[in-house]
């Protein structure tokens, strides 16, 4: 009997994660035992496991791997695709890299973190290829492309091609939608890429104002319908401010009718152009464009919960596959009763739990080649204090070095234990196990000099009872939905 690793699995070994089967389609690293890994090295179709030289332990490991669906029987000569074969990397594993391939944009959104416009900088195609080589050398399986607006690059199809040629999955393209065309989607299909699309959409009747472009709302709708028509997954993102805070449910319903699968609502970040005083500073002092206070944000999000579930009751199911209401709630159509509070930790996490696990697994690379925990930290205001932070340029410190043993890696490796040691007041707080200091990225954004400070947003949400109120509203709404089903 011969075996081979099933497609799309790849056999991989990284520092700290030495025995892994990588499921490229789901971006999942499946850990296997050392014995299973040794067996998998023989599962390339070349070894007959019935030969007496193959020990009972290897046969047992093969049986276990068959049961787990990781390998399949094959005939002589039916080997692996080249990318499936074992590769070892000296660096830590990164699941996907969020990458700004440009700082340019065809819009002038009032809240753009990077104050992007038509004149922003971007790496040349040659530099893009060099970065793609670095990504490949680290075994990073996927990139999520963003900007600026990535589609303003005339050579965007060439970027797609050079990534695909290196076997790098394009997991997501973030866009304002205005430049999404059938031609782009054809090009992706030809390359065998089916990325998810993240389309910014800041509310029915509100989008044009925030985006600074008449017709932006119609363009986003057109793009979402086009993408959904090609069965590509669309997540819309909505940034909440005083002017659109009551439009969440109406927007969710409109997006669902256009074919979007998810809506991710987040609060306004006081960064970039929102603070620069360009385009609308006078309006920002009025109610229409003001940043919401934390209590206003919580009130607006909690008010949306019953209305959204009532729409679900009327329609026989929640309108979107997934609705995220900032830090307060994730509601899923597949399991409306299984509510998730994003700001809340499980409460059972050990003290060694890495607080920036997601940021370590999915860091962000800016257009000028700086490796950072999150795109939120790429704001123009924040960048002024950047030189004191361990966010290296990969043109000076190669990506592999950044991901092997570096100040960057240590900065995203902070644990709950580190946090509690630095914050004795939090250690004594009744919410500490559920909160663990909130988001490290929020805290860094507020005060780059104190990356271990409490996150003021999540702190207030816990201490003022907003988290519990969100849970109560969602539980009641989900129960009503269940009862009327
Ligand atoms: S709620 Fe505030 S004080 Fe309590 S653990 Fe969280 S950050 Fe610390």
Q: How much strand content do the residues show?
A: 15-25%
Shape: globular
Can you tell me the CATH superfamily of the largest domain?
Answer: Aldolase class I
Which hetero compounds are present in the coordinates?
iron/sulfur cluster
Q: How is the largest sheet built, in terms of strand order?
A: 14-13-12-11-10-9-8-7-15-16
Average pLDDT level = 92
Number of strands: 16
Summarize the entry for a quick read.
This protein is an alpha/beta fold. It folds into 2 domains: 2-88; 90-292 and 356-412, Alpha-Beta Barrel (TIM Barrel). 37% of the residues lie in helices and 16% in strands.
What does this protein look like?
- The chain is an alpha/beta fold.
- It has two domains: 87 residues; 260 residues, TIM Barrel (Alpha-Beta Barrel).
- Helices cover 37% and strands 16% of the residues.
- The protein is built from 21 helices and 16 strands.
- The strands form three sheets. The protein has a ten-stranded mixed beta sheet with strand order 14-13-12-11-10-9-8-7-15-16. The protein has a four-stranded mixed beta sheet with strand order 4-3-2-6. The chain has a two-stranded antiparallel ribbon with strand order 1-5.
- α8 links the parallel β11 and β12.
- α8 packs across α11 and α11 runs parallel beside α21.
- The longest helix has 22 residues.
- About 2% of the residues have low confidence.
- The structure holds iron/sulfur cluster.
């Amino acid at each position: 009997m011969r075996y081979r690793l099933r497609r799309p699995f790849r056999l991989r070994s990284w520092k700290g994660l030495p025995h892994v089967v990588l499921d490229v389609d789901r971006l999942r690293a499946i850990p296997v035992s050392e014995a299973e890994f040794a067996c998998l090295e023989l599962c390339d179709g070349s070894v007959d496991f019935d030969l007496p030289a193959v020990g009972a332990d290897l046969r047992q490991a093969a049986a276990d791997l068959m049961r787990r669906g990781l390998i399949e029987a094959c005939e002589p000569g039916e080997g692996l695709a080249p990318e499936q074969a074992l590769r070892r990397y000296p660096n830590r594993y990164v699941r996907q890299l969020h990458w700004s391939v440009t700082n340019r944009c065809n819009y002038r959104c009032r809240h753009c973190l990077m104050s992007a416009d038509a004149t922003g900088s971007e790496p040349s195609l040659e530099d893009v290829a060099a970065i793609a080589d670095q990504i490949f050398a680290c075994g990073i399986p996927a990139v999520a492309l963003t900007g600026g607006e990535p589609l303003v690059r005339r050579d965007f199809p060439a970027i797609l091609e050079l990534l695909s040629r290196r076997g790098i999955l394009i997991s997501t393209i973030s866009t304002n939608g205005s430049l999404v065309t059938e031609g782009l989607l054809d090009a992706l299909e030809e390359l065998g890429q089916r990325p998810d699309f993240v389309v910014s959409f800041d509310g029915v009747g509100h989008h044009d104002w925030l985006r600074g472009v008449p017709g932006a709302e119609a363009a986003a709708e057109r793009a979402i319908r086009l993408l959904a028509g090609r069965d590509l997954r669309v997540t819309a993102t909505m940034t909440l401010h005083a002017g659109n805070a009551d439009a969440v449910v109406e927007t969710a319903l409109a997006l669902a009718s256009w074919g979007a699968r998810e809506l991710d609502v987040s609060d306004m970040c006081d960064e970039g152009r929102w603070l620069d005083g360009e385009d609308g500073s006078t309006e920002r002092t009025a109610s229409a464009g003001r940043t919401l206070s934390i209590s206003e944000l919580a009130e607006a999000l909690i008010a949306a919960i019953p209305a959204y579930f009532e729409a679900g009751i009327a329609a026989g199911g929640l309108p979107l596959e997934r609705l995220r209401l900032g830090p307060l709630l994730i509601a899923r159509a597949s399991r409306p009763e299984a509510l998730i509070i994003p700001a809340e930790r499980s409460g059972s996490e050990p003290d060694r739990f890495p607080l920036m696990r997601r940021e370590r697994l999915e860091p962000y690379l800016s257009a000028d080649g700086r490796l950072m925990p999150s795109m939120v930290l790429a704001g123009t205001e924040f960048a002024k204090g950047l030189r004191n932070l361990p966010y290296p340029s990969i043109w000076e410190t190669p990506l592999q070095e950044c991901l092997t043993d570096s100040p960057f890696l240590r900065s995203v490796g902070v644990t709950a234990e580190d946090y509690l040691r630095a914050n004795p007041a939090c250690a004594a707080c009744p919410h500490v196990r559920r909160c663990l200091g909130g988001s490290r990225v929020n805290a860094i954004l507020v005060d780059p000099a104190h990356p271990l400070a409490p996150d003021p947003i999540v702190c207030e949400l816990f201490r003022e009872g907003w988290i519990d109120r969100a849970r109560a509203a969602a539980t009641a709404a989900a129960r009503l939905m269940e009862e009327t089903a």
